[in-house]
Design a protein that fits this description.
Layout (H helix, E strand, L loop, with lengths): L1 H31 L6 H27 L3 H7 L16 H21 L9 H26 L5 H4 L18 H18 L3 H18 L12 H8 L9 H5 L15 H13 L6
Helix pairs in contact: 1-5, 1-8, 1-11, 2-4, 2-8, 4-7, 5-7
């Protein structure tokens, strides 16, 4: 029974991404349906939404949620205590460099990927996002696991300067890692094509789960210690979520945080409690 709940828990993540992205895409569609975007304006829109949402969401998590001790305690399920570290301060040079990289990445992605108009068709958009997250998770898993081999570790080691993770550690990586991860992000779009409203929704939700995954908190998408265990243990938990780690047997056991935002975990908690079984997987 617990194995069944484990797989449901992983699939819940994919469904959350697909559903929330579809909802956000509908908003972008109604905002932009009467506007004609050429290639350059599409690139600028994609870049701006990605950059603004990255900083806004990151600061919201770090400065608002984490400033409330009772909320932080409620949302965390950290297993391994780590020594607190100071994180790099934001500098004008660092921000400009990061935005130049983001703009170039947006330019490359939209230049290479085929544009397909799906308008506000709920079924087509839901299917696109569902395939997109499963494929993106697989591509990230493969590349991330390769980064932890001796041949490629030097590319990835900058990201692991921090064991005490913070939201903005999500963007702390070497230039080579940034390029490789961007290429893996392009691959699913090359397969499935893109609609600009889909990309806007994807980059917004993608920033949310990426920043949450590095925040040590279980807010909506990712269990708080899934990526914690990767940083503290330096192996396993290579995916965005645990599906492919479970498939390839590289999953470090995590504490599922039951709650309304994680319905499968809540159902499992009540079921296992009823049968007197342990909660941890």
């Amino acid at each position: 029974m617990q194995r069944f709940f484990n797989w449901c828990f992983e699939l819940e993540f994919y469904l959350k991404i697909a559903i929330t992205c579809t909802m956000v895409q509908q908003i972008f569609y109604f905002l932009f349906k009467n506007i004609e975007f050429n290639f350059i304006t599409q690139v600028l829109l994609y870049w701006l939404i990605g950059s603004i949402s990255f900083y806004a969401i990151g600061f919201f998590i770090e400065k608002f949620i984490k400033s409330k001790d009772n909320l932080t305690k409620k949302l965390t399920a950290r297993v391994n205590k780590v020594k607190k570290q100071s994180f790099p301060a934001f500098t004008l040079k660092g921000i400009i460099t990061g935005e130049i990289k983001s703009l170039i990445a947006a330019l490359i992605i939209l230049y290479l990927a085929p544009e397909v108009h799906r308008d506000n068709n709920l079924l087509l958009n839901f299917g696109w996002f569902l395939m997109r997250i499963v494929a993106a998770d697989f591509c990230f898993y493969v590349v991330h696991r390769l980064f932890h081999t001796k041949s490629f570790l030097k590319i990835h080691i900058k990201h692991h300067e921090f064991k005490d993770t913070s939201s903005f550690v999500a963007g702390h990586k070497s230039l080579m890692e940034y390029i490789i991860v961007t290429i893996t992000d392009v691959l699913p779009i090359l397969i499935f094509g893109y609609d600009i409203t889909q990309l806007c929704a994807w980059t917004l939700i993608g920033n949310i789960y990426n920043l949450e995954g590095h925040s040590s908190l279980s807010i909506f998408f990712i269990p708080s210690n899934f990526h914690d265990l990767h940083h503290t243990g330096f192996n396993g938990n290579y995916g965005i979520h645990g599906f492919w780690d479970r498939v390839f047997n590289t999953l470090n056991p995590i504490n599922k945080k039951p709650g309304i935002m994680f319905p499968v975990s809540l159902i499992e908690y009540k079921t296992m409690k009823l049968f007197g079984k342990r909660l941890n997987r």
